[in-house]
């Protein structure tokens, strides 16, 4: 498929993304002309596991896919693949949505298992790192799940998809705006408990921590003060713990409306960030 324009869609619980790129000579490296679009339909809003998606969330999701469809029709990639994630594993009508999307748009569309989602997250993050770190942990914070992948070079040594994400945490624990100290404490305790199951390299072994997807790129955008979605600037950005703690201290005291005014933060993420 070298040189052939391909499309990939990530149908996340909070964010949908489309990337168009051509494979390099080795079939692995995308060329520099890759282009990325994102929409935030939050299809998992109000979702109860085993129940169908909410009507308003479905309407936003179809609108986002129709916009991506127009781009794909215009650019005419040779192949389009779409992967649906945690929300589609939880919703009773997740398989029906995926089947309808495949029928309506003609894209190969499937619901990914947690392990598949983790594996693809890792390969996507490492794809443009040449050479990759000797030891690394890739993590992907999503709307309903978070993936952790431990790697030695490009070889996966452990992976796990954990049932914790920004939309689920907000809906389960945060009712006030801004959140109360007790609500934030409940969120932090839930995260600590869930992350106890995250795979990590052996204690004392140095590794590179690599974050991917919307939450970490949003944090990078906020810390860099970017105007709009600028993946070419957030990719490879280094974020220190002290900067994150300062930002957390600031935005946890703000209302969603106040946070929405911050550069680098999409208004649809203001309530969950």
Brief overview:
This protein has 273 residues and is α/β, with parallel strands linked by helices.
Largest sheet: 5 strands, mixed
Number of strands: 9
Q: Which structural category do the helix and sheet elements fall into?
A: alpha/beta
Give the radius of gyration: 18 Å
- The outline comes out as globular
How many H/I helical runs?
Answer: 10
Describe the fold and architecture.
The protein has 273 residues and is of the alpha/beta class. Helices cover 38% and strands 21% of the residues. The chain is built from 10 helices and 9 strands. The strands form 2 sheets. A 5-stranded mixed beta sheet has the order 3-2-1-4-5. Strand 1 and strand 2 form a beta hairpin. The longest helix is centred in the N-terminal third of the chain and has 21 residues. The radius of gyration is 18 Å and the shape is globular.
From the structure above, extract its key features.
alpha/beta, globular
List the helices and strands and how they pair.
Layout: E1 5-11, E2 16-22, E3 35-39, H1 55-75, E4 79-84, H2 86-90, H3 94-105, E5 108-111, H4 114-126, E6 135-141, E7 146-152, E8 155-162, H5 166-173, H6 181-195, E9 208-212, H7 214-224, H8 231-234, H9 241-251, H10 256-259
Parallel strand pairs: 1-4, 4-5, 6-9
Antiparallel strand pairs: 1-2, 2-3, 6-7, 7-8
């Amino acid at each position: 498929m070298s040189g052939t324009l391909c499309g990939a869609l990530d149908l996340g619980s909070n964010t949908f993304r489309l990337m168009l790129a051509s494979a390099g000579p080795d079939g692995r490296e995308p060329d520099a002309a890759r282009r990325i679009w994102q929409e935030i339909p939050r299809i998992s809003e109000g979702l109860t596991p085993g129940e169908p998606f909410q009507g308003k969330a479905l309407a936003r999701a179809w609108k986002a896919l129709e916009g991506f469809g127009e781009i794909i029709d215009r650019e005419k990639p040779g192949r389009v693949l779409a992967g649906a994630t945690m929300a589609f594993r939880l919703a009773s009508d997740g398989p029906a949505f995926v089947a309808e999307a495949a029928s309506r748009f003609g894209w190969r569309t499937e619901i990914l298992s947690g392990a598949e989602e983790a594996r693809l997250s890792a390969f996507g993050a490492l794809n443009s790192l040449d050479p990759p770190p000797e030891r690394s942990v890739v993590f992907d914070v999503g709307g309903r799940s978070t993936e952790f992948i431990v790697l030695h070079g490009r070889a996966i040594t452990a992976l796990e998809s954990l049932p914790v994400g920004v939309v689920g945490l907000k809906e389960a624990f945060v009712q006030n705006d801004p959140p109360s100290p007790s609500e934030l404490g409940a969120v932090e305790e839930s995260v600590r408990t869930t992350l106890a199951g995250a795979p990590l390299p052996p204690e004392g072994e140095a590794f590179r921590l690599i974050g991917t997807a919307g939450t970490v790129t949003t944090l990078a955008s906020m810390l860099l003060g970017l105007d709009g979605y600028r993946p070419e600037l957030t990719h490879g950005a280094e974020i220190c713990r002290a900067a994150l703690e300062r930002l957390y201290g600031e935005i946890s005291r703000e209302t969603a409306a106040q946070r929405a005014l911050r550069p680098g933060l999409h208004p649809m993420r203001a309530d969950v960030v």
